[in-house]
Specification:
- This protein is mostly beta strands.
- The protein has a single domain, classed as Jelly Rolls (Sandwich), CATH 2.60.120.
- Helix content is about 15%, strand content about 35%.
- It is built from two helices and twelve strands.
- Strands 1, 3, 4, 7, 8, 9, 10 and 11 form an eight-stranded antiparallel sheet that branches. The chain has a two-stranded antiparallel sheet with strand order 2-5. The protein has a two-stranded antiparallel sheet with strand order 6-12.
- A hairpin with a 5-residue loop joins strand 7 and strand 8.
- It comes from Pedobacter soli.
- Keywords: Signal.
- InterPro entries: Cupin_2, HNL-like_cupin, RmlC-like_jellyroll, RmlC_Cupin_sf.
- Pfam families: Cupin_2.
């Protein structure tokens, strides 16, 4: 897929999210099958050991021979987070709600809020998840053309909480 096509796809997603995502002030009625913003289905609880805490995934686009990107809506309950991991072809995170964290190995933790966009470089170990007291919602766009996600060790509580107090 060309870089122009990827940029068009990401721009389209961002525009859609901007138009339809919830605001922090809004009290939106929704059922248990949608995330807090009501943007996409909440999905199913992740049951593997690649996460700490309750995380839900709703696949939106599966990679195939025409498009090598996976796109998924990921909902993290407060305190939930991924293990350290990397993506051979990189990843883009579009924050749709809540408060979350992102950290690359050797760098400081970054606080994420609705509207933030993170470009995870290829093969750089990182983790992301919800803050300790607020849920977090993201759309993850993951390139698959160079191989699957490489899962590493769990994020320790001391790393997770660093800089919070």
């Amino acid at each position: 897929m060309s870089m122009k096509k990827i940029k068009q796809t990401v721009l389209g997603l961002i525009c859609s999210i901007s138009l339809f995502s919830c605001t922090q002030e809004a009290k939106v009625s929704h059922d248990a099958n949608t995330d807090e913003c009501g943007l996409f289905a909440k999905g199913k609880k992740v049951t593997n050991d690649n996460f700490t805490g309750a995380v839900y995934l709703q696949p939106l686009i599966e990679s195939d021979s025409l498009n090598q990107n996976n796109v998924g809506n990921v909902s993290f309950e407060p305190g939930a987070r991924s293990k350290w991991h990397s993506h051979p072809a990189g990843q883009i995170l579009l924050v749709t709600g809540g408060v979350g964290y992102y950290q690359e190995k050797g760098r400081s933790k970054v606080i994420l809020r609705k509207g933030d966009v993170i470009k995870c470089p290829p093969n750089v170990p990182h983790w992301h998840g919800a803050s300790a007291d607020t849920a977090f919602y993201q759309v993850a766009i993951t390139g698959r053309e160079k191989g699957p996600t490489v899962w590493l060790e769990a994020v320790s509580d001391s790393v997770y909480l660093a800089g919070d107090r």
